[in-house]
Write the structure tokens for this entry.
Amino acid sequence: MAGQPQLEIRHKGGGRRRPVQLHVMARAPMESPCVNICKLDKAGRICTGCGRTTDEIRRWAGMSKAQRRAIMERLKGFSS
């Protein structure tokens, strides 16, 4: 396939080379309510940009899809 990374394997003792096709799997970007306006409210507990708590922001990448989806649903209609 054109444009795909390739790796050449050489056998010990100088044997012939043979190309091996590498398949690079791209990850889909993680859904996030972040709008790149990262500023906390006066109490320092909620981001005024996305509406998440500091705890939710800190744990976001480690949450399950279901946990993130529940927060996204709660934040529907939130605007900074």
The chain has a mean pLDDT of 83. Helices lie at 54-59, 65-74.
